[in-house]
Amino acid sequence: MVVIKLKYIPPVICSYTLVMLLFTVLVHFVTAPVEEIGRLPPLSETATYLPGRYIFITALILPSIAMILGAVAVFNSNRVLLSKITHGAQRLICCYGCCRITGVNITSLISAIVAGISLFGLAVVPLRNPDDNNLSLTLSARVHLMFTFIFFVSIIVHMILSTVTSIVFDRQLNQAVQNNDLSISSRRLSGWVIFKIVIICLVFIVWPLLPLIGLIVTVSSCSGASISAGTCGFLQFVTAVGAVDQYAFVLCIILFMLTYMHELRNSKMTLDDSDEYDEQLAALRLGEHVFNEIETDNGRLNDDEFEFNVNEQ
């Protein structure tokens, strides 16, 4: 029997994603034209030239599949935990009675599945082709931007709902400790739940703050005509700030996915139940042995009957 603890899978997937995306950026600086090397590109632009496009696709396809499967595993784990906390009633409420935790758990699962599908789509459909000199809104660019928008919105929804679920479960476990229902140590919030809250706060601070800083610097330093003509020297600074903002957002998502270790701490996957297989094989062999004995006894009985009939004749 081979048993795999699912809590060890998230750090592997997150490390793989981070390393592959960094490798994609480095390959872009090697393969991109000279005029593009001087600026920091967004992640989607690193898939413009070969072999960076193949690395970019490889870096995101596996996490997209793992995100969907991991969300399903977390959903099942939360459902089992909810059944234990409420003793099968499953009527636990959250947000001061505004919703039930079962609905939050289902919505979190749906948003994670949508995010995984969108991540797969933006990985496969490129934003730019090598022949494009600018970011013209081609059909490929439109589809890529649509997938990107859906991914960012759905993953934020999933992160918020997952954090709400973790907070509610953590408080219920603390209440169970006070009532001596469960044998765990008393605490306010676990470190993993606090880590989730910190990541959510960073997302809502860093994501809008950096583009706002770039916009303020550009507007205060350049005229409207120079900005429209593309001659403002701070436009490159704004592009770099936008790229850093995107990198920071993606890093927050990767760090948040590490919290699946806490959600899946008690989940296991069995690849091969060798004991059960041996028992079934032994039963099959026993049945075959009994069948052979019965067949042998029947053969002997038929031979005796044949000899008896011959003697009578």
UniProtKB/TrEMBL annotation:
Domain of life (superkingdom): Eukaryota
CWH43-like N-terminal domain sequence ranges: 7-266
InterPro entries for the chain: CWH43_N (IPR019402)
Keyword Lipoprotein tagged: no
Keyword match Amino-acid biosynthesis: no
Transmembrane segments: 12-34, 54-75, 106-125, 145-169, 189-217, 237-260
The entry's keywords: Membrane, Transmembrane, Transmembrane helix
Short name of any one Pfam family annotated for the protein: Frag1
Protein name: CWH43-like N-terminal domain-containing protein
Organism listed in the record: Acrasis kona
Taxonomic lineage from the root: Eukaryota, Discoba, Heterolobosea, Tetramitia, Eutetramitia
